[in-house]
Amino acid sequence: MRFTRPLVVDQFQLLKRSGAVQRDKPELVDAYGLRADKAKVFEWHFKRLSLPTGLLESPRAGVQVQAALDLADAVARALRTALKHLYPRKGEGNDLALGNLIRSAQMAFWSGLRWQFEGRFLSELARQTVGNLEAEELLLQRWQAVVREEGWRTLDAAIEPLDTGAAALRRQVQAREAFDLSLSKLLSAEDSRPNKVVRKVKE
Q1: Nearest CA to 30 among 46, 43, 17, 14?
Q2: pLDDT tens column, 152-176
Q3: Residue from 188, 198, 68 nearest 125 by CA
Q4: Domain boundaries, the chain
Q5: What is the distance between the alpha carbons of residues 186 and 17, in angstroms, rounded to a whole number?
Q6: How big, in percent rounded to 5, are the helix, strand and coil portions of the chain?
Q7: 58-194 maps to CATH 1.10.132.100
Q8: How far apart are CA 139 and CA 142, in angstroms?
Q9: Distance from the Cα of residue 140 to its chain's centroid
Q10: Angle CA(81)–CA(72)–CA(109) in degrees, nearest 5?
Q11: For residues 13 and 62, what is the distance between their CA atoms, to the nearest angstrom?
Q12: pTM for this one?
């Protein structure tokens, strides 16, 4: 998939270079999104972003931002798959199995990442020296840690209020193991769980 920076962002950068706009003035971008099925619109979103000047001047910023969002999206999908284990037979034959729980968990996951992304990731990215590959790698590693921690926090919060019967506990362990396996592949870690806490079910 190919992504192109909006022309209005390039125009704003040119205005800064020409002196028509102060160089330290952040750019405000209004972003709109729709969730639709064919011609039916289910919901729409609006977000106003303030982009630091450093992001506009870095030729690598777009690539790094896309990589960070792709990683978060992959973890969100892994979270959804893991939560399916909480339903008997992973919800096979029931497309609505645990639908509300999964939607709430994913909303909590993205909400938890939002301030980390806007407040920490973008700020650090804006301060990077162009061409500093070591800084790029370090920022990615820090973002991986943030996504991993938020993913586990979301999964644990979703599981905590559920039934504690023997069968339910086994499915909860399966959900955690599935999520751990997915994160280990996505984040290249031997054990993705914080502090390598091993959760067991009492026989």
Answers
A1: 46
A2: 999 999 998 887 788 888 989 999 9
A3: 68
A4: 8-57, 58-194
A5: 40
A6: 60, 10, 25
A7: yes
A8: 5
A9: 13
A10: 70
A11: 14
A12: 0.76
